Amino acid sequence: MRIEAIGINHHTSPIEVRDKGSIGPQRIVAAYETLLLSSNIEGAIILSTCNRTELYLSPYQHHETTRLRDIFASLTRLTGEEVASAFTLRDEEAVSHLFRVAAGLDSQMLGEVQIIGQVKDALTQAQEQNAPNTVLNKLFGKAIEAGKQARHRTQISRGAVSVASASVEMATRIFGKLDEVKVLLVGAGETSRLAARHLQSAGVAGWRISNRTHANAQVVADLLGGMAVAWPPSAEDLAWADLVVSATSADEPVLTTRLMKQARKQARQMRLLLDLAVPRDIEPGIAKLDDTYLYTVDDFEELVAANLASREKEAQRATKLVDKLVEEFAEWYRENRVAPTIQQLQQVLEELRQQEVARSAKRFADSDQEQVDKFSRSLVRKITSLLIANLKKSALEEDGLQTARALTMALVTDDHRDDADTVLEKLDHELSH
Amino acid sequence: MNTLYVTLPLILVAFSSGLLAAWLMLIARPDRKIEEVLVRIGTVLSLIMIHWLVVMAAIQNQAPVLTPGQVLVFLGVQIWSMHSLLQRKVRQRFFSIFPLTVLTVMMVLGTCLGLQPGADVPASLFGFRSGFHITLSVAGVALLLGSGVFGTAHLILHRQIKGRSFGKWYQNLPSLNDLDRLRGTTLGYGWLLITISVISAMSNLYLNPERDAAMVSHLHPMLTLWFLISLLAAADRFRWLGNRRLAGASLALSCVMLLLIVVSVVEIFTGRFA
Fold first, then answer.
1. Which of A199-203, A365-369, B51-55 has the highest mean pLDDT?
2. What is A163-304's CATH number?
């Protein structure tokens, strides 16, 4: 196998180096142009995200590690010292690394889902520049499959892993879809806004914002498309809301059990109250009320810890899936080495078939011509299939390319002597590895 | 005949047991693709079972209620079909285990008790009116039992959320709101079917007071049950109670109903009414 990978990520380099080494959209075209100028590079793909910059190469000959670092440095503008920390991998290890990346196993936040889209984008960008060869196209295709399988066949991406997203997760466990959920935001500070952003992206139905300084409440209300209400929130506001997010700097609880009881008299429904403030904004006694769920920052940290533990467990299953796909890819790669011979075989046999059909045309009546053509096609197809199957089987073995070489030589015709030489050259090149 | 009453039920028992085993394995190793396949297999299973019961009804010229085994199987199939139907609206994930267990148990019990009607079938079970009344009752009971099961799931999830226990059930049950909606819907339709069934039974009695005199005593507990169901349906419709209490009440009603149904079935087939 001839695949190489070099890159920096959160395992190898600090954030400043990762930022500096990033190859943004403005530089990506130039980077591909530089790479493709190299006579030893058959294909290349750059994967550049906010957390990693990785280069995957399909070279004619493996590069020396120092040469690989030089190539990477020229693309990323990193210094020699900075590039020294970059990882370098070859062949199966490089394949395994990419598949682990796509599966979210190598992410800073285990099982994160954005990476699979970023791998797809990297492939598309590279294809636009005609940069990947067959091997890299297949490699990234399989990597995307690894990502999809890890997400669908395991629960590695399941459950929130930050307090803000955990609050959305809890809301969905109670309300299901959030498109009918009305939210009362108590406080208009940074914490409230962060939680509001997460809830807004989940698509809630309406907002009311209550803040000590009404003008700030109005600003947040305008941002969210909601309504600023009086401070402190009234029982009517509480009765209106399904979800209450409170994050103020008040010293005393803003939402009391008495107020909540009044609200429950006005509207009996399930309510989730998220107390993101320290000290608490919501009286703990409220949690004892029926159909009222009170969660604090500490509770969410517990939830996040439980989700992370669950993801760690699922990572083992995802690793097994990745290993299987690495094996599949390696098998495909070995089979693919005989692809030029297969092409030659198909071409030569088809030409022979056509010649024979043309030569025998006079011996058959016009009405039989179609039958003769069909018969010859069927015969050639069967012979070709048998030869291809055995050729692929032999390609999986250690000295399997010798069979392909022998077949290529056996298929040399006067018309295709040059083509056969090219195929032999490719096979010899493979054999040299 | 043997195929319809013995061989096919045994195959279906094996099928539903296998499906249950697959769902149980899925709890240990969640896999969304396999889950989707199992949901489809479950829908096919319910269609096959409905088809089987329709053929049985056509052959015996009466709904499958002529033996206690038939009643159990009829109820089990209705519960599973209802679940398959609801699964198209709300993804219920591991929740499928509850109705599938009920189906499997009912199929096993039904097959053991015997599905082929003998000569000792009570005469009151024959005829269109009886068939209509019993079919509606069984369908109503299936829905109300479903309502009880959704209520149970609501209580489980409620406890998990209140108790900060974020295990597999927390992750894989439908949301509290969905469970409440499903509970309310099944309760509403269950009430409707039981109401029609009770009206049909009363009109039967009105039209044939002498033939079905024994049914009067059977009707008393059923009317009490209908009253309780109506009370709960009203409490749900007008939100007299909170979601958790409604869930608890649905569970309690299911238990009472199950008890009454068992007593009723035993009485019908032993020739004695309450």
1. B51-55
2. 3.40.50.720
Q: Give the CA angle between residues A216, A218, A221 to the nearest 5°.
A: 115
> Residue holding tokens 């039974």?
B201
Q: Cβ atoms within 10 A of the Cβ of A298, count? A: 12
Average pLDDT over residues B170-196: 90
Structure token pair of residue A252: 């005393």
Q: What is the pLDDT of residue A400?
A: 66
pLDDT of residue B41: 93
Q: What is the mean pLDDT of chain A?
A: 86
pLDDT in tens, A286-306: 988 988 999 988 888 888 888
DSSP for A84-134, written as a single string: HTSEEEEHHHHHHHHHHHHTTSSSSSTT-SHHHHHHHHHHHHHHHTT---H
Closest CA to A32 of A121, A109, A128: A128
Averaged confidence pLDDT in chain B: 84
Q: How far apart are CA B180 and CA B156, in angstroms?
A: 12
User: B166 and chain A: CB distance < 8 Å anywhere?
Assistant: yes
C-alpha dihedral sign at A117, A118, A123, A128:
positive
- Residue A112 to residue A121: CA distance in whole angstroms: 16
Q: Is the peptide bond before B68 cis (omega within 30 degrees of 0)?
A: no
Residue numbers of A between 155 and 194 with CB closer than 8 Å to B = 155, 158-159, 170, 172-176
- Tell me the percentage of chain B whose pLDDT exceeds 70: 91
* Mean local confidence (pLDDT), A183-195: 88
Model confidence at B274, pLDDT cuts 50, 70, 90, reads very low
Arithmetic mean of pLDDT, A68-97? 89
Q: Which CATH class is domain A4-153?
A: alpha beta
Identify which of A105, A84, A93, A82 has the alpha carbon closest to the alpha carbon of residue A15.
A82
Q: Supply B224's token pair.
A: 């009490």
Determine how many CB atoms are found less than 10 A away from the CB of residue A361: 13
Mean pLDDT for B105-116 is: 88
- Chain A nearest CA to B162, separation (Å): 7
- Min distance B177 CA to chain A CA atoms (Å): 5
- The answer to whether B162 contacts A152, with C-beta atoms less than 8 Å apart, is no
Tokens of A137: 């196209």
Task: Identify which of B213, B157, B211, B218 has the alpha carbon closest to the alpha carbon of residue B182.
Answer: B157
Q: How far apart are CA B121 and CA A205, in angstroms?
A: 58
Question: CA–CA separation, A166 vs A172, rounded Å?
Answer: 10
By Cβ distance, the residue of A155, A270, A303 closest to B176 is: A270
**A54 vs A132: CA distance, rounded Å:** 14
Which is it for strands A243-246 and A271-275: parallel, antiparallel or unpaired?
A: parallel
Residue type, A182: K
pLDDT above 70 (res B238): yes
Report the alpha-carbon distance of residue A32 to residue A41 in Å, rounded. Answer: 11
